[in-house]
Amino acid sequence: MQRLQVLKDALFGLDLIQRQALVGSAVAAGGLLAYMVHKRRQVKTIPLGEGWWGAGEKPLTEDDKIYPFKVETSDEEIKDLHERIDRTRYSDPLEDSCFHYGFNSTHLKKVVSYWRHEFDWKKQVAVLNKYPHFKTKIEGVDVHFIHVRPPHRENQTVLPLMLVHGWPGSFYEFYRILPLLTESQDGVVFEVICPSIPGYGFSEAPHKQGFDSLAAARIFLTLMERLGFSQFYLQGGDWGSLITTNMAQMKPECVKGLHLNMMMSNRGFKVLLSLMIGPYLPFLVGLSREDVRRLFPFFEKNVYEILRESGYLHIQATKPDTAGCGPNDSPVGLAAYILEKFSTWTDMRNRDLQDGGLERKFSLDDLLTNVMIYWTTGSIVSSMRFYKENLKSNMNKRVDTRTGIFVPTGLAAFPGELMHCPKSWAQIRYKNIYSYTFMPRGGHFAAFEEPRLLADDIIQFVQKVENF
């Protein structure tokens, strides 16, 4: 009370001009504070940009029609595959090495034997054509996608949803989750679009340098606009997580919700403080017990483990054309390179197994179908280039890294993901998190491994956004 009285006396002791100056300063300070709060809450976007990735000069006009597409094969293609497989030269594995040195060649011979003598590519082509395929030219390249509509029912609301894959996956990763999303679930049903990233599978590879996640995001926004969707949901993991995040940053007014099963956070003081205090007093830094279990010991789980598993990234981010020569020419080399990721990235403990645990979550038919998409399209090198284009400069200085994401966001944290991102870290970038779920099982290839778990989490997220 005494301090208030002193303050009151000092205020009334001022002359009129001093009082006006004080009031003016207070109003200015209040206005500045309100402006700063408004700017922080204001939805920020990143430039849409423009690009041309076709061969040669950009024409004055571009065909914007959408054409049906069908996956095809031939006896000559299969004969060539078998002849190459028959000429494979294997190396002997080290004793008791399991998958610690990569794909164990003893088990590789068994997989390749199945591929050569039992795998039916014509049958799998029919499986691929189960859903309608299309192509359309955007920014000079043919973009492939599948478009799956739900069965027509009266009085149901259909929500558009784009699913975006990563490396070394493809649109085929989503074949097990599609029936779960296109059948009505508690009032939610989706019309699903699954594109192939340009340079992957049946999408044409860019002919010019610089095609990164921002370019892919812009192309997929154009695709959704071309399909007639003004608002839609997005879902992604791996590169698909970054591409869909960029889409939400470019046109937040179009993205009703963003669901991710892989998320990265900006590093900073908050993260550093979490690492220092988190193991001892997690509640003080916004970590849960499950966060602590997944994060610590931090250097073992998130530094050394990543160093052991990221050699491919450094190669592909520097000299993809060199590294890609072998797997582009040898089907067995391609299978070993791709399938080793489906072993380790599903569960790191698979490195301790002679067979890499490949068939614990996947069938050989499904795994080899994904490999065949890369083989028959000759797209392994162009898919690897995506790392070079995104990592040739400091990603921390890119505009998308420095811009928040303000659309409603749902995050599914799978325990086998390469790196764990706690909700408190995700909130640094994703400003409007509607749901964050600790998934009970599953790894990097969520839609391929655990389609039911992922579908349920997408649906509960959308229900929250739609207020169902």
Structure description:
The protein is of the alpha/beta class. It is built from 20 helices and nine strands. Helix 7 packs across helix 8 (239-250), helix 13 (320-329) packs antiparallel against helix 17 and helix 14 packs across helix 16 (364-377). The termini are far apart. The chain has helices at residues 2-12, 16-41, 75-86, 105-117, 121-128, 178-182, 213-226, 239-250, 269-277, 289-295, 298-309, 311-316, 320-329, 331-344, 358-361, 364-377, 380-391, 423-426, 446-449, 451-466, and strands spanning 66-69, 133-138, 141-148, 158-164, 189-195, 232-236, 255-260, 409-413, 433-438. The chain has a nine-stranded mixed β-sheet with strand order 1-2-3-5-4-6-7-8-9, with helices on both faces.
Summarize the model shown.
With 468 residues, this protein is of the alpha/beta class. The protein has helices at residues 2-12, 16-41, 75-86, 105-117, 121-128, 178-182, 213-226, 239-250, 269-277, 289-295, 298-309, 311-316, 320-329, 331-344, 358-361, 364-377, 380-391, 423-426, 446-449, 451-466; strands spanning 66-69, 133-138, 141-148, 158-164, 189-195, 232-236, 255-260, 409-413, 433-438. Strands 1-2-3-5-4-6-7-8-9 form a nine-stranded mixed sheet, sandwiched between helices.
Shape: globular
Strand order of the largest sheet: 1-2-3-5-4-6-7-8-9
Count of helices? 20
Rg (C-alpha, Å): 26 Å
Q: How much helicity do the residues have?
A: 40-55%
What proportion strand? 5-15%
Mean pLDDT: 92
**What structural class should be given to the helix and strand makeup?**
alpha/beta
* Main sheet overview: 9 strands, mixed
